[in-house]
Amino acid sequence: MHEFNLKTHRHTEFVTIDRQVQDAVDESGVQQGVVHVFIPHTTAGITINENADPDVKEDMELILDRVAPWEGGYAHAEGNAAAHVKASMMGFTATVLIDGGRIQLVV
């Protein structure tokens, strides 16, 4: 198992972790198989999508903020209910194939 931490700067923010996942695969020495990425926090999620067009990321953030606005009159008292909703919508795991020691992502 390999662990790394990230820091975000906005309520809704997509962070590319391809490099960190590939580094973990490199350290493992696995050439063929799968890597399971697990997010162990209830206010963060994971998804795989294209990264060639920055508008995709902006659109995703826009829709998530529209569906679960930060100030939404939530009952959850901690003040981060929107983060819980968005994380649940995204999911908390991703499985990525490894071929030839390289992670295989959507192209």
Number of helices: 3
Major pleated sheet: 3 strands, antiparallel
Q: Radius of gyration, Cα only, in angstroms?
A: 16 Å
Structural class: alpha+beta
How large is the share of residues in beta strands? 15-25%
Q: Are there runs of 5+ residues with pLDDT below 50, and where?
A: none
Strand order of the largest sheet: 1-2-3
How many separate structural domains?
A: 2
Task: Considering the chains and any ligands shown, give keywords for the structure.
three-stranded antiparallel sheet; alpha+beta; 107 residues; 2 domains
What does this structure look like?
This protein has helices at residues 18-28, 54-67, 81-90; strands spanning 32-38, 93-99, 102-104. The chain is α+β, with helices and mostly antiparallel strands and 107 residues long. It folds into two domains: 15-40 and 92-107, no CATH class; 53-90, no CATH class. Strands 1-2-3 form a three-stranded antiparallel β-sheet. The chain starts with 17 loop residues before the first helix and ends with a strand. The mean pLDDT is 94.
